[in-house]
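CORE FACILITY INTAKE
Project code: CF-77B
Contact: R.S. (postdoc)
Sample description: multi-component assembly, two entities in total
Requested service: structural model of the whole complex
Turnaround: standard
Below are the sequence entries exactly as provided by the requester. Do not edit them.
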Amino acid sequence: MKKFFRLTAMAFAGALLIASGAASAEKLKVGFIYIGPPGDFGWTYAHDQGRMQIEKELGDHVETTFVENVPEGPDAERAIAKLAETGHELIFTTSFGYMEPTLKAAKRFPNVKFEHATGYKQADNVATYNAKFYEGRYVQGIIAGKMSKTNTVGYIASFPIPEVIMGINAFLLGAHSVNPDIKLKIVWAYTWFDPPKEADAAKVLMDQGADIITQHTDSTAALQAAAERGVLAFGQASDMIQFAPDTQLTSIIDEWGPYYVERTQAVLDGTWTSGDTWHGMSDGLVVMAPYTNMPDDVATLAAETAESIRTGAFHPFTGPIYNQAGELVVSDGEVADDGMLAGMMFYVKGIDDEVPN
Amino acid sequence: MTELIIASIMTIMTAATPLIFAATGELICEKSGVLNLGVEGMMLIGAVFGFAAVTVTGAPVLGVFAGALAGIFASLIFGFLTLSLLSNQVATGLALTIFGTGLSALFGLEYVGKTIEQIEPIHIPLLTDLPIVGRILFGHDPLIYLAIAILGLTAWFLRRTRAGMVLRAVGDSDYSAHAIGYPVIAIRYAAVAFGGAMAGLGGAYLSLAYTPLWAENMSAGRGWIALALVVFASWRPSRVLLGAMLFGGITILQLNAQAAGFGIPASYMSMLPYIATIVVLVLISRDSTRIRLNAPACLGRAFRAER
């Protein structure tokens, strides 16, 4: 019932946005579907920054539209199709749960080009793109391993999908590389954006003794809950330092802008082709916010690790890596390939928990 | 271990507080015979206006007042439609929720992603530092004490005061109360406004103390839980407190269970408040004396004075 109301409200909002964008027809119209509000200062905010970069660099030839707060699942298809119907030739759908809706809409509109973030299914007119956030999570893990006094770190996870699980694993590998006693407590919020629930999760983790909080959800609530109790935490998707100046250790910043500009330019030039892009620190898509609230030696270690990941000298998933059953999944000196990471649905050894099903 | 238990009780109390506010308001409203299903909408309106007031003025007290006033404003729209224009209470209440969700989202657009100073827990030297009970009794933010105080006053008001008896009479037999000369409509307006103020406070608690930020639809179903809570409490204030701790506790314990490493599927836990309410409904409908004792007989019925 509630979902229906939201959808109705959303459809109206969408219609308004689209109506306002219909004025100048000769420009290339680029549409965005957002899971949350651009003001979440997390995931959606980062995508919206990318959208604005398109406007800034290609504004003479391009106009952009976004529809915010679109729930994941089959209903998203309507919002996507609406953008396609109103003359948008390139549509970015920016959440994992838009995978099937995007593919369905893409079938109905073969001439429209779609770009789906964090998914793994492509089509002739559907490209996928993602960022190697795990690179940043490994760096966070190192910081947490050095900074935790209780050796207990709280991790607020969103949904049990490879994207999130690979982040948890990278974080643990990073933490254990400097402090093998680190215990990870994981709470699944089953949401990307629900500030009170994210705050609840952070409080519960702190209740259970976690003195570092990290999150894979989109709002600043967990960081602020940590700040209230004087516990250190990481930001998410953008630099959240202004929300918790004495709390944020660093944050993984998503720089989508260059990719968005490149893909839009490709459509303008007529050179767009489908594909799968997975960029990380080396491409400037994953950037670490300044290292704050930690001693210099930890900041230096974090910066050096990030730099060696960026140059390709080091890969966070370098063997030997064992799964929880103790089986060797990446042998000594080898590096996990992208295919394995993209489908990662198991925890590595050292995580005292089970992946929910 | 004790530290974990104390910390969990503290967290559960913060989770229970918005429910106590909203359910106390709805309880008074329903006791007067008016069923207002718009709690969720009024909470959202309270949350966004409370947040806006603090953003503009920087004074948390004004935020609390703004939240309550916004709730009253929303409830009076409902009051006017159902009490003066005699529209159907169920339909109008649902409409108020939809309206509140939309209005708060629209008004809140410019406040998304902003932050304010959170309302801090109090600290009384000596008392708060007492072992174990110190923080549980004296370490919360002021609004938690306000919620419990209002709940206590409500219990006293309904049971011990003449005005409380009149309110119950209006809810139990509106025409009799009218015949004796009580202004049924005016009393119901007051009850509806109180319900709005409380729902607004519950919403403001979310955006001012719970998480110091505004997010669209941030009440996330708490208004509906408050409605269920009133029925669960079978219209008794003392049971509202118990139920709020229970319903708030379920959410927190679910997360606690996960963090401790034994995961219970989250969806089962979020169903529990509603299942508990249905069980209570079944129990009280089997026992007709209890219905007569607690449930307002005229709940949801329109009242037309000239008949």
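Facility notes:
- The first helix of chain B runs from residue 2 to 31.
- Chain B has one domain: 2-111+140-294.
Invoice: internal transfer
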